[in-house]
Design brief:
The protein is α/β, with parallel strands linked by helices. The chain contains 8 helices and 8 strands; from the N terminus they run αβαβαβαβαβαβαβαβ. The chain binds pyridoxal-5'-phosphate.
């Protein structure tokens, strides 16, 4: 009896995740149309923190092919359970330099690079694993004490320094904006993104702007985000 009940609730949640994927894609599509953008240019990432691997796999089976991981230990625990065919795993949480070696073999991109030292360490271990690791720089766009990332006026210098590392390539910018006045900060990010994309720096190809979460991804699409990172809205009640 107990088994039956938990099966039912798994199926209910599975159904909910499927529905949410449709809703999210539809919302992204509408935001894209409204802003004269191509829906296909926008990546919908499923953020998996605290979500058991079986629910993440439901999302993967239903067309999600990029997931975002926040914590090294959680990734190590869940990695072997994931359906990995065509799956890309981005690391999006704060990363300590002494944990870098643990994730290099498992991830396809590290979005949360917030110091020169971290970039250097990622490059060093990527070399050991024979990889060129795509990285994004995390920008603390609201210059908040509680958040990690480069301040807007530090970015250019940071890019110049970081790009000297051989086994990484800078591919994008990532941010978590302040809760209030989010449009203002999305717009600032878009300006920085455009500015940097237009600069020709060796080993730097900034093609991705990763911003927008459950509460504001449609707004982010309006300011050029091409990766939106959605957790709570997709996996409601799945943890
Ligand atoms: C948790 C998290 C998200 C997703 O936030 P939700 O509000 O759950 O959609 C996106 N990016 C980062 C870096 C996160 O830690």
């Amino acid at each position: 009896m107990i088994t039956k009940k938990s099966e039912n609730s798994f199926q209910e949640k599975e159904e909910k995740i499927k529905q949410k994927i449709k809703v999210i894609k539809q919302k992204i599509k509408e935001a894209a149309i409204k802003n004269n953008r191509n829906f296909n240019d926008i990546v919908f990432m499923a953020v998996t923190k605290n979500v058991p691997a079986n629910f993440v796999n439901v999302a993967i089976k239903n067309g999600v092919n990029v997931i975002g991981e926040n914590r090294v230990q959680e990734l190590e625990k869940k990695y072997s359970s994931y359906l990995k065919k065509n799956l890309k795993i981005h690391f999006i949480g704060h990363l300590q330099t002494n944990k870098v070696k643990n994730i290099i073999p498992f991830v396809d991109c590290i979005e949360s690079v917030d110091s020169l030292k971290l970039a250097e360490t990622i490059s060093k271990y990527s070399e050991k694993f024979n990889k060129i690791m795509p990285i994004f720089l995390e920008i603390n766009i609201g210059e908040e004490k509680s958040k990690f990332g480069f301040k807007p006026n530090e970015i250019l210098k940071a890019i110049e320094e970081i790009s000297k590392n051989k086994n990484i390539k800078i591919n994008g910018l990532m941010t978590i904006p302040p809760k209030n006045n989010v449009e203002k900060f999305f717009q600032l990010m878009q300006e920085i993104y455009i500015d940097i994309s237009n600069k020709k720096i060796d080993n730097v190809n900034v093609n991705y702007l990763s911003m927008g979460m459950s509460s504001d991804f449609e707004k982010a699409v309006g300011f050029g985000a091409n990766i939106v990172r959605i957790g709570r809205f997709l996996f409601e009640d799945c943890n």
